[in-house]
Amino acid sequence: MAQSKRQNVLQLLGLIRRANQLVTGEEFVLRAVQKEQARYVFVARDSSKTTHKLFLDKCESHKINVSFEFSRAEISIAIGTQRSVVAVTGVGFSKKIAQLLD
């Protein structure tokens, strides 16, 4: 993926957090996925294999997009707090992210 698109997605994550359409933390994201409130899930590529498998399986079963594109540091800097798993709940924002990542 082009560096500018990566940067745009990270900037968009910060905007989504300020718009209060971002769920952070493993338990809360898992709950949002199970309730099908999450539209796009980001799991840090440097998180554990167990975390990767858990969210990949849950997101696939609920037909939710999941990305392992960014590191924990990149996600944390973008949203302003230390997290390795975040979920976008806004439909418009998730469409824009899908457009940028594809």
Automatic annotation (TrEMBL):
Domain Ribosomal protein eL8/eL30/eS12/Gadd45: 8-96
Matching InterPro entries: Ribosomal_eL30-like_sf (IPR029064), Ribosomal_eL8/eL30/eS12/Gad45 (IPR004038)
Organism, scientific name: Liquorilactobacillus oeni DSM 19972
Source organism, top-level taxon: Bacteria
Record-given protein name: Ribosomal protein eL8/eL30/eS12/Gadd45 domain-containing protein
Pfam families: Ribosomal_L7Ae
SUPFAM superfamilies, alphabetized: L30e-like
